[in-house]
Amino acid sequence: MASLTITLQDINTYEKETFISALANLFEGPPWIVTNAYPTRPFASLDQLHQVLCSIMYAAPLDQQVALLRAHPDLVGRAALIGSLSPASKGEQAAAGLDQLTGEEIATFQHNNKLYRERFGFPFVICARENKKESILDGFDKRLNHTFEQEVTLALTEVAKICSLRLRDLVVDDSL
């Protein structure tokens, strides 16, 4: 996905603005997680960088976590249908086959998105690259029965998976 190779050594030596710009797309929405990770450099490995990023996300106040979740696009939502997803989100939804749905399947996703958003106040977040349309639809069914607290926790776990995959697409671990 990345057009240029960035190494972990590069990440460790970047000035703050370059660091933020390089890693901002690991998460949807404003780059507050990446910004807060900057002072913790240098990172010994990509795993350590990922752990730091996720620790910041998990330690954030609930309202900031929910804002992070709200920054995610709906699966097969308006942004996907009009072609305005970020390149990362577009590729992730395509990897799950969500760019090849029938009209009926699109309607099912949109109905589930609406139910989920009404129940929890944020979009259904799942690591699409680790799923296909069937497992995503099953996920809607199961997760609509969760409590708000359970669902925030699970959605953040999915964000962590998305971040890990995006990080590995972007940065070469030259620490070995």
UniProtKB/TrEMBL annotation:
PANTHER family according to UniProt: 2-OXO-4-HYDROXY-4-CARBOXY-5-UREIDOIMIDAZOLINE DECARBOXYLASE-RELATED
Oxo-4-hydroxy-4-carboxy-5-ureidoimidazoline decarboxylase domain location: 12-168
Protein keywords: Decarboxylase, Lyase, Purine metabolism
Its EC number(s): 4.1.1.97
Gene Ontology MF terms: 2-oxo-4-hydroxy-4-carboxy-5-ureidoimidazoline decarboxylase activity
Protein name, UniProt field: 2-oxo-4-hydroxy-4-carboxy-5-ureidoimidazoline decarboxylase
One Gene Ontology biological process: purine nucleobase metabolic process
Catalytic activity: 5-hydroxy-2-oxo-4-ureido-2,5-dihydro-1H-imidazole-5-carboxylate + H(+) = (S)-allantoin + CO2
Entry-linked SUPFAM superfamilies: UraD-Like
Pathway assigned in UniProt: Purine metabolism; urate degradation; (S)-allantoin from urate: step 3/3
